């Protein structure tokens, strides 16, 4: 067994692996259940331009910073920050960015795996033709029967465990045989499947409807709220603040061009989100059945109901959720890496045992989120379930705090000469832009995002009946990323179906009379996160 703090955490063997692994880390559920909605209500193609500007000028520099920290140190984020702080002679408090980022990755993965269990189940539900001629009420019944049916939590736990086994199985085989081989197959396969489904939706649906919603330029729909929406989505969709980019930078080969690869990743992430939006709105045969839909309601209710209208819907629905499964699987594999890397460097344990131990810990932590939908649904602290507090803590505090620490450290603690050395061969103009973005722009912007997110989240608990002390204050904070006058949530608002009355049937449309639909995942469960 290697000694503590001297473990070689591994390396990719091909320079292109960094690109494929990074695409797998960035393309997540937000590309499917959030971006199409935002583009459709915030000006279509104009919102895409705003979003790209936010990515390239603001969040891409932070991605580059995390990646070069890992590459320079050849360690995960904890030891990378530890070494950098010592070299720069700065306060030891900056080291907090390391363990906080690992904690954020651990917590986000714990509830991402719960979503993965739902998606895995839906692959089989689609193949079994459970959504044949499904109505919104019946589709809601399928979701609630799986997630929050009294006494049915064991089935949900089985799907959750099955998904975690898939994730741990890849990680336990090592960086090359597990992570590199899997992501080099999984990510291109998912992209090819998406292209096939897009071609199918364009030929059997209404591509003009998708273009109108996603690509058409609508200046009247663009305002200050559109800019805020673009900033929020750009920040939370790229996996920042969780040590993913540091560990991938540490794994990258010496001849991998990190900055060029990350630029390609950002563009690929945007392209996937656009294709997802075009695909979804094209299959909406009436042109409006997905309007105003996002989040759980879009992915697990409205989309299956819409796809059920197409020929061979059984195969199409199964293929769509297989695509979603591949996306969530790649995201989960990426999120586990910072935790496994930290555990190996902390203990010197072998790769296989590190993956199994951390995977079991993630699975156990995920049970808290899973039980929040069923067994513990009635147990709330300050008006929120355990799952809701975990999501708010990671999205509103941990991730922005880590990003703020890294940006401030890079901008104010590193000398320009030292920063230029870790950045590598970079044009002087690009290096100057990076320096001032890290020094002035990102700290202010990230702090604003974190404060807006947290304040609105706590206010939203008051709207849901919380009697917490902060609910006694007059005046509700402004929605940090408002969409319409009637929306009360940013990241994943509730669908009309998920907040409606008790469904009439179970997965077959019959007999779920004792399961309230409001216990299913809805808009009040998730505001925003990077899965």
Automatic annotation (TrEMBL):
Transmembrane segments: 18-35, 41-64, 102-125, 156-176, 183-202, 230-250, 262-285, 315-343, 355-377, 397-415, 436-456
InterPro entries cross-referenced by the UniProt entry: Na/ntran_symport, SNS_sf, YocR/YhdH-like
Membrane topology (UniProt): Multi-pass membrane protein
Keyword terms of this UniProt record: Membrane, Transmembrane, Transmembrane helix, Transport
Lineage of the organism: Bacteria, Pseudomonadati, Pseudomonadota, Gammaproteobacteria, Pseudomonadales
Subcellular location: Membrane
CDD domains in UniProt: SLC6sbd_Tyt1-Like
Region of interest: Disordered: 479-531
Organism for this UniProt entry: Marinobacter alkaliphilus
PANTHER family given in the database record: TRANSPORTER
Descriptive protein name: Sodium-dependent transporter
Alphabetical list of Pfam families matching this protein: SNF
Highest taxon above the source species: Bacteria
Main location: membrane
